[in-house]
Write a structure and sequence with these properties.
alpha/beta; Rossmann fold; 2 domains; 10-stranded mixed sheet; 6-stranded parallel sheet; 16 helices; disordered N terminus; binds adenosine-5'-diphosphate
């Protein structure tokens, strides 16, 4: 059973569906791959539990990590069936990681296209297995730190599972909302099959418009709720930004906090990045010019002095494609070049490809996921486009700032906390204030003005961005304090 006093090292188990360098869908993987190691460096006994999706164990071994099989199996009851998993633990490396192996995680693409009572089961198994870890591994965390809807069943089980709530765990739980857009909706009574008791199925529990909302259950049940930037923490408590949970989050505001994400600054470092054709730092940007030339060459474009706007990310509604696409003709007319890397909604992928067919010397795209191309786009651009409709934190703008590529970003969520308008103190980019093609073009117009007419100012903004501290050194201590405040 978990016990703690303030003189002891805090023991924290992070539970997540994804984490770099083992498996990644989006920014959540970056955060979970870098926050626990920094917490460990700052003195916490921090560990990570991750599903062994296809290729994950091989990825760990390829990184040179040694894996030990834990002799006891992890047995979890779901719908009267005992589901068995095998736990592997790294015995070296900077962070102890437990990999949970089970048929639930085989042949899956991490997140299902459609969430239903069957496709949610890998996440239920992961969540319940976390509650068995103390028995199986003989390590008893004080804090269970869950990330997004996929690990919400853990917090739900502590409060409402007929068996787990009787076990009298002394865990404190932290639930981090990385993106409120994905809440995990299921038919209400399908949770009976997990062993969830009837008292969960009310408006004070996880009932939501007649269905079950996993994120709602986790917000109600968690000891603390964090999200990934201060502005987003405020936005999600409003009707407009709350995605249907604004009122709930307001009523729990005493335990909601926004803590800005950090970046793995050893990985994202233009001075050492092995995926770049040349390295550079804020003191000498010669290498950045080489990266730019290499990117232009790769795209089949001749250098003609035109500004290059790049972007890396999921091509989905959230990222502002509905204001970007109508702005492209004007951008081309104004002499901009545009390179977009990413994948997502079919209609956006097609529209971008059509634009590159129409303006082959000005618009180019890479549809797919490619780490090397992403690094080259971050380094090779003059400006980085991020016109997001909403953005919980956003890592891409942090990376672009670190790589000396000035962001043109919507003033929303974590973007508003990290991108500051050119000309203001600490100015490092250009803000889109109005969510419309005109709002985006207005910011691009200001960016072009500086690009063409104020080389010194452009350089100063680059240096301001590159000199900023985006490491976890800033935010990991805030999590540490939060954990401490939760212990008895
Ligand atoms: P989100 O989590 O909403 O997708 P973030 O900005 O928080 O957005 O994080 C996105 C992360 O995923 C960044 O590290 C970005 O470089 C990476 N990424 C997104 N799309 C691609 C892609 N197509 N190829 C390579 N990396 C990508």
């Amino acid at each position: 059973m978990a016990t703690a006093d303030s003189s002891k090292r805090i023991k924290v188990l992070h539970v997540s569906p994804e984490a770099v360098p083992f498996c990644k869908v989006g920014g959540l993987a970056d955060v979970v791959g870098s926050l626990p190691p920094s917490l460990k460096k700052s003195g916490a006994d921090c560990r990570l539990l991750l599903p062994a999706w296809d290729g994950v164990l091989d990825a760990a071994r390829d990184k040179g990590l040694k894996l030990e099989r834990i002799p006891r199996s992890v047995d979890v009851a779901i719908d009267w069936r005992v589901c068995r998993g095998t736990l592997w633990k790294t015995s070296d490396g900077e962070l102890p990681v437990y990999f949970l192996e089970s048929p639930f995680f085989q042949g899956k693409n991490i997140y299902p296209q459609q969430l239903d009572p069957e496709s949610v089961l890998p996440f239920v198994f992961l969540s319940f297995a976390a509650l068995e870890l103390e028995e199986v591994s003989e390590w008893n965390p004080d804090i269970l730190h869950c990330h997004d809807w996929g690990t919400a069943p853990l917090i739900i089980a502590l409060l409402w599972h007929k068996y787990y709530r009787l076990r009298q765990f002394e865990y404190r739980t932290v639930f981090t909302i990385h993106n409120l857009a994905h809440q995990g909706h299921l038919p209400l009574y399908s949770l009976r099959d997990w062993g969830i008791a009837e008292d969960a199925f009310t408006m004070f529990g996880l009932e939501y418009y007649g269905g079950a909302n996993l994120m709602k259950g986790a917000v109600v049940g968690a000891s603390a709720v964090t999200t990934v930037s201060p502005t987003y923490a405020w936005e999600i408590q409003t009707e407009e930004g709350g995605a249907g949970l604004g009122g709930l989050l307001r009523s729990h505001s005493h335990k909601v906090r926004g803590i800005l994400n950090g970046l793995d600054t050893a990985y994202w470092n233009p001075l050492t990045d092995p995926l770049l054709p040349a390295n550079y730092s804020q003191k000498d940007l010669t290498g950045k010019k080489k990266c730019r030339n290499a990117l232009l060459e790769q795209l089949g474009w001749k250098e003609d002095g035109r500004p290059l706007f790049t972007s890396v990310g999921r091509m989905v509604d959230q990222k502002g494609f509905d204001i970007l696409l109508p702005a492209i003709p004007r951008m081309v007319e104004w002499g901009c070049r545009l390179f977009l890397a990413g994948s997502g909604q079919h209609e956006y992928e097609t529209a971008i490809q059509e634009a590159s067919g129409r303006w082959p010397d000005s618009v180019a795209s890479f549809i797919g996921y490619d780490e090397e191309i992403a690094h080259q786009a971050y380094a090779g651009g003059d400006f980085f486009l991020m016109p997001s409709k909403f953005e919980p934190c956003g890592l891409s703008q942090l990376i672009s700032l670190r790589y000396g590529t000035l962001p043109v970003a919507r003033s929303v969520g974590g973007l508003a906390d990290t991108v500051f308008e050119y000309g203001a103190p600490g100015g490092n980019g250009f803000l889109i204030f109005d969510y419309s093609p005109e709002g985006l073009l207005s910011a691009i117009g200001r960016a072009l003005d500086v690009f063409w007419n104020d080389a010194g100012g452009y350089r100063a903004a680059q240096v301001s961005g590159m000199a900023s501290d985006f490491s976890w050194d800033r935010s990991a201590p805030v999590y540490h304090d939060l954990y401490r405040s939760l212990l008895p």
